[in-house]
Amino acid sequence: MDTFNQVHKIRETLTRLKNDGKKTGFVPTMGALHEGHISLLKKSIRENDITVCSIFVNPIQFDREEDYSKYPVLPEKDLNILENTGCDIVFMPSAEEVYPEKPVLSFNFRHLDKILEGQFREGHFNGVGIVVSKLFNIIQPHRAYFGQKDIQQFKVIDCLIKDLSFNIDLRYGATVREEDGLAMSSRNLRLSDEERKQAPALYQMLLYTKNLITQEHNSPESIKKQAPDFLKKHPGFTLEYIEILDFKTFQPLESINIENKIVVCAAAYLGNVRLIDNIIIDGK
Ligand code: AMP
Fold first, then answer.
1. Cα–Cα distance measured from residue 205 to residue 247, given in angstroms and rounded to the nearest whole number
2. Active-site entry in 8, 37, 124, 234
3. One-character DSSP codes across the chain
4. Strand pairing of 50-55 and 169-173?
5. Structure confidence at residue 283 (pLDDT)
6. Nearest to 278 by CA among 175, 198, 199
7. Is 176's C-beta closer than 6 angstroms to any atom of ligand 1?
8. Which atom in ligand 1 lies closest to the alpha carbon of residue 185?
9. Cα–ligand 1 centroid distance for 216 (angstroms)
10. Probe ligand 1: pick from 125, 128, 150, max atoms within 8 Å of CB?
11. Phi and psi of 99, rounded to 5°?
12. What is the distance between the alpha carbons of residues 239 and 228, in angstroms, rounded to a whole number?
C-alpha cells in the first residue's frame, strides 16, 4: 500500500496506472475508519484493479467549530485497517495541500441543499461539493463509492457528477450497523458510555416510523408528530428533524403512496454529538 500526501505525487502514480489500463475505484472518507467504510472499500476492491482511499477531514464542510475540532483523527489505526483490508493507495493530504487558496466557487444544489442537512448545517453541501470535485479531479477514478448512511450527500454527489459531466460511475453501499442497530459512524467514538447505550433509539425511531407507514398507513404530518414523542423517552436526545421523502426525487412528501420507494431521514443530538440515520422503504 502506498500513501501520498501531495497532489502532484499521487497524480503521477495514478496517471501511470491509468496508462497501464488499470481501473480505479475511489472511497473518500474523513478517517476514524469503521466497518461502514470497510464495506465500501471491499466493494471497490472487488470491482476495480486499484482502490484509492482518501482520508481528509474537510474543514469547509463543518458548520460548528466544535464538531470539526473534536472530529476523531486516528491516522495510524486507519492505515492499519486500510493495509489489512487490501487498499492499494491512500491519499492523506493536509488542509493546505487541498486548499492552497480559499475557494471562490460555490455550489447551489437547489432543493437538495435547502432541506435536512442543508438546512441545519449551513454551507455543508457547498463544502462537500468543493472537496469532492477536487478529489475527483485529483484521483480521476472510474468508480466512486459512497454510503447510504449519508443519503442526502449521495444525492448531491449524483447531481455533481451529472451536472459537471464527471466520467465516474457512482456506486452505493448499504448502511452498516452495530449489533444493537446504531449506524456506524466516526462520531460514535465521541459518545459517553451512557450516551452509547441510548444511541440505538434513533434507529428504533426510524423502525417505528416505518411501521407507522407500512402497517398503520399514517400521513407524514402525523408521523412527524409521533416520532419526536418516541425519542423523548430516551434521555439526552434532542431531535433536530425527521422527514419522509420520495427516494428518487428527494422531495419531502405530504402524502404517502406505498407503491413508491420512500426514505425517512432523521438527525438528532445526543448530548453534544450529532447523529444522522435513515431507513429506506422499498415500494411494492
Ligand atoms: P465519512 O468518513 O463519515 O465522511 O464517510 C465516508 C463514506 O463512508 C461516506 O460515503 C459515508 O456515507 C460512508 N459511511 C459512513 N458510515 C457508514 C455506514 N455506517 N455504513 C455504510 N457507509 C458508511
1. 19
2. 37
3. -EEE--HHHHHHHHHHHHHTT--EEEEEE-SS--HHHHHHHHHHHHH-SEEEEEE---GGG-S-HHHHHTS---HHHHHHHHHHHT--EEE---HHHH-SS--------GGGGTSTHHHHSTTHHHHHHHHHHHHHHHH--SEEEEEGGGHHHHHHHHHHHHHTT---EEEEEPPPB-TTSPBP-GGGGGS-HHHHHHTTHHHHHHHHHHHHHHTS---HHHHHHHHHHHHHTSTTEEEEEEEEEETTT-PBPSS--TTS-EEEEEEEEETTEEEEEEEEE---
4. unpaired
5. 76
6. 175
7. yes
8. 16
9. 32
10. 150
11. -120, 70
12. 6
Give the model's pLDDT for residue 188: 97
Any catalytic annotation for residue 37?
yes
Query: What does the longest C-alpha to C-alpha distance in the chain come to?
Result: 58
For the record, the C-alpha cell of 267 comes out as 438527525
Between the CA of 277 and the centroid of ligand 1 the distance, in Å, is 11
What separation in Å is there between the alpha carbon of 43 and the centre of ligand 1?
13
Q: What global pTM score does this model have?
A: 0.97
CA atoms 28, 29, 33, 34: torsion sign: negative
Does ligand 1 lie within 6 Å of residue 188's CB atom? no
List average pLDDT for each run of 10 residues in the chain, which is 284 residues long: 98 98 98 98 98 98 94 97 98 98 96 96 97 98 98 98 98 98 97 97 98 93 95 94 97 94 98 97 83
Would you state the cell numbers that stand for residue 35, as one nine-digit string? 466497518
How large is the C-alpha radius of gyration of the chain? 19
C-alpha of residue 33 to centroid of ligand 1, in Å: 9
- Residue 275 Cβ < 6 Å to ligand 1: no
pLDDT for the residue 65: 93
